[in-house]
Design goal:
The chain is mainly α. The chain has five helices and two strands, in the order H-E-H-H-E-H-H. It is globular.
Length: about 110
Amino acid sequence: MKAFEQIYAVVRRIPKGKVITYGMAAQLAGNPRWARVVGYALHHNPEPVVIPCHRVVNRFGGLAPAFAFGGEDRQRALLEAEGVLFREDGTVDLEQCLWNGLEEGETT
């Protein structure tokens, strides 16, 4: 499986109301050094309705200023519609909304 396909497979699994960081997506896709590759892949997302790239944020919970599918405001609106919580500084509350990479009911 190629890098982008591996990344898209991970991002498809992120549940509604949860987010992951670029670094986490890279690690789950098989290469912790792919954080920038994740950003590039999501910017070229061929199926934004199927591959929820809006659920990927930076390591501080920050949104993508150049979100490819409508800008930062659109990314925030999509996340808020799913119940993602934001802090006063405009970043995602990672303590509440960070996905652990496990499917519901799955344990480590």
